[in-house]
TrEMBL record:
This is Thiamine-phosphate synthase. The gene is thiE. Residues 133-360 are annotated as: Thiamine-phosphate synthase. Binds 1 Mg(2+) ion per subunit. Its cofactor is Mg(2+). Keywords: Magnesium, Metal-binding, Thiamine biosynthesis, Transferase. It is an enzyme of class 2 (transferase). It catalyses: 2-[(2R,5Z)-2-carboxy-4-methylthiazol-5(2H)-ylidene]ethyl phosphate + 4-amino-2-methyl-5-(diphosphooxymethyl)pyrimidine + 2 H(+) = thiamine phosphate + CO2 + diphosphate; 2-(2-carboxy-4-methylthiazol-5-yl)ethyl phosphate + 4-amino-2-methyl-5-(diphosphooxymethyl)pyrimidine + 2 H(+) = thiamine phosphate + CO2 + diphosphate; 4-methyl-5-(2-phosphooxyethyl)-thiazole + 4-amino-2-methyl-5-(diphosphooxymethyl)pyrimidine + H(+) = thiamine phosphate + diphosphate. The keyword Ligase does not apply. Its EC number is 2.5.1.3. It comes from Phormidium yuhuli AB48. It comes from the Bacteria.
Length: 360
């Protein structure tokens, strides 16, 4: 049937086996879109993405004619009982959504090809819809990353260590959701392999993985984003390569650098170094005055960084920080999981107090 409800001249000649393929994949695509739509509606509260999903689902429903439904033969379908262990378990919402987006894309490709035998308009419609789903997937990933970034209060910036993977995983087990891999001296092959392993480790725990400095390596391993220093490439250049769906952060040491980062479109900024730190030996500490400035003026997520540990954390709170980035406090910790939990509990407490003060 065409969208206008009139059967195409090929429709009555379509073999029953092709009708079964079309029926199964219309079901598959509609079900997958509905799963994504529910998260856009209830998880993201995003009306635009929800409406996009709804429109696609309804368009597919109009193609699901009585002729195609009548071809269904579930009892004799050899694929009904086929499954794979990876389909039986999902670790997080992201895996549910990614699996169903892939499912929709595959089903639309099948509908595009076999639909040409039934009604060329169906093939054309599904081709256009497949591109819509690709765009939806990009927008969705961007939205997911931005939501995680906004929710993150503790940011681990790694330093070279024989315990690198051990420390990062222990921190992730403590609830860490944002990790930056920073290594200025290692060769590119080693750095690439390490970054790939860290990305998978972070994603296993539902955390964001950011690569320091190197846009090319971030692109190669499909990192969630890149962090740029003041001497690195312009944000506009990084955005052109990485696209709108990935996160770009910028280090800032002064109000002027912050204003420039905001104008260039940074997704977040580092504010510091607050205190003297071996990581930035050439930088004069920006101090708590800059933290206070950020608390009053910065409209995007910002992380106080530089010499922050359990002893200096209260002072940083007093300056107005609600997010912090740490290096040595975690990388040199004997028990990274416990230290992570301590930082997160303190940050959660200060954020609750701030919200209460704002409301009262």
């Amino acid at each position: 049937m065409s969208l206008e409800g009139q059967p195409h001249h090929n429709a009555h000649l379509t073999p029953p086996s092709v009708c079964r393929i079309l029926d199964a994949n219309l079901d598959r695509a509609r079900e997958g879109i509905r799963i994504v739509e529910e998260w856009c509606r209830f998880g993201l509260n995003n009306a635009e993405l929800t409406n996009t999903c709804k429109q696609m689902r309804q368009e597919l429903g109009r193609w699901h004619s009585a002729q195609l439904r009548s071809a269904r033969n579930t009892p004799d379908d050899p694929g009904v009982d086929l499954t794979h262990p990876r389909e039986e378990r999902r670790e997080n919402v992201e895996q549910v959504l990614q699996a169903n987006l892939c499912r929709v894309e595959e089903a639309l490709r099948v509908l595009e090809e076999y639909g040409k035998l039934y009604d060329p308009d169906l093939g054309r419609a599904c081709k256009q819809m497949r591109y819509q789903v690709y765009t939806l997937e990009s927008n969705f990933l961007a939205d997911q990353r931005q939501q995680k970034l906004k929710q993150a209060s503790l940011y681990l910036v790694t330093s070279p260590s024989d315990r690198l993977f051990e420390v990062v995983e222990a921190a992730l087990q403590g609830g860490l959701t944002l990790v930056q891999y920073r290594d200025k001296d290692t060769d590119d092959v080693t750095r690439l392999n390490t970054a790939q392993k860290l990305k998978h480790l972070c994603h296993d725990y539902g955390a964001l993985f950011i690569l320091n400095d190197r846009v090319d390596l971030a692109l190669a391993i499909e990192a969630d984003g890149v962090h740029l220093g003041q001497q690195d490439v312009p944000i506009s250049f990084a955005r052109q390569l990485l696209g709108s769906q990935r996160i770009i952060g910028r280090s800032t040491t002064s109000p002027e650098e912050m204003r420039r980062a905001l104008a260039e479109g940074a997704d977040y900024v580092g504010v510091g170094p607050v205190y003297a730190t071996p990581t930035k030996q050439d930088k004069t500490p920006a101090g708590l005055d800059y933290v206070r400035y950020a608390a009053e003026r910065c409209p995007i997520p910002w992380f106080a960084i530089g010499g922050i540990d359990m002893n200096t954390l209260p002072q940083v709170f007093e300056g107005g920080a609600t997010r912090v980035a740490v290096v040595r406090a975690l990388m040199q910790a004997e028990q990274p999981t416990l230290v992570t939990q301590y930082f997160l509990s303190q940050l959660a407490w200060i954020n609750r107090m701030r919200r209460r003060d704002e409301q009262g």
